[in-house]
Amino acid sequence: MSVMLVALPIVLVEAGSGYTVAAIVAGAGGAGAAAAALPVGWCTGRWGPARVGVGSLGIMLVAAAVMASSIRPIILGPAHFFFGGGALGVMLSRQADLTARVPSALRGRAMSVMGGSMRLSILLGAAIGGILVDLVAARGTFLAAGLGAGIGLGAVVPTARRPESEVAPVGVGGPTVRAVARLNRRPLVGAGIFGLLAMATREGRMVLLPLVGVALELSASSIGLLVATGYTADLLLFPVSGMVMDRFGRLAAMVPAYGLLAVGLLLLLLAKSTFGVLTAGLVMGVGNGLSSGSLFTLGSDLAPKEGAAAYFAAVSLVTDGGRVLGPVLVGAVAGTWGLDAAAATLAGVMALGLLWLVVVVGETGP
User: What is the pTM of this model?
Assistant: First the structure.
């Protein structure tokens, strides 16, 4: 997914598309994730996490092949929509599996490992995505992203073929998504709106940094490495996130973490050179690393014992709206007032999210 997020803005802007079109196509993956949330929750409860993982990775493979057939926005946008839906299916199926296996007292650390593995993939994808655009152009880059999804099949196909070895799917025989949403309205809205604002900031950053690199006239390889450098700090800190969440509470980890993400975006306003952008990216990386697994943990803390998979799907439906909102905000604001204004807007969105987290959600840990 991160290969796509880095490559798409670079490819489209260099092909003559404006910031707005590039951001909309990049955000189509988030729209696909939001649209897939409820179907994925239903399928996970009915057929189990492993088989949902296999189907989701298959969708990503097909979507990547379609993207490799053309670099026109009218093709890339819908294909990225389905690619994002597949990525969401992988993530939710893994979260449902871990929630069934891991007790609450260890949940922060378990979910931070899951978040850390995703950050490793973002680090590699960001670096590889920019290099591949320079080496094999857009179509080869999109095929490489599909290959990554294909490799993932090896992790889930064995369990899908032997469902008796899998933990009983969360939510089997339980309430429907609609019933779960009705019975858990307050925690769902609390976690969902914070997740929406946090995800909007994270995803907006993934689109904003490549656009800043293009504005500085850097090569695609340099832009990819620039984005990846911030994720190095991000990756190194994920064990700290889980330990702090389990020992001192969820807010003790999340408030400083997301606060640093907002500070890094404000530093981007002052950055007029590659070094300045690198510094801002590192600060954002530290903040994002300290928040590793926090949204997974928050969702798992608040999930009901009956119908957990359906609850995850409902929360994801709200949260993944941020994956659409972030890139669209960046494209709309940057196209009208410039990239500095886009950075300030994302910082404001994150500040609003922190206020919501402290005042409305509160502490959810044991």
Answer: 0.73
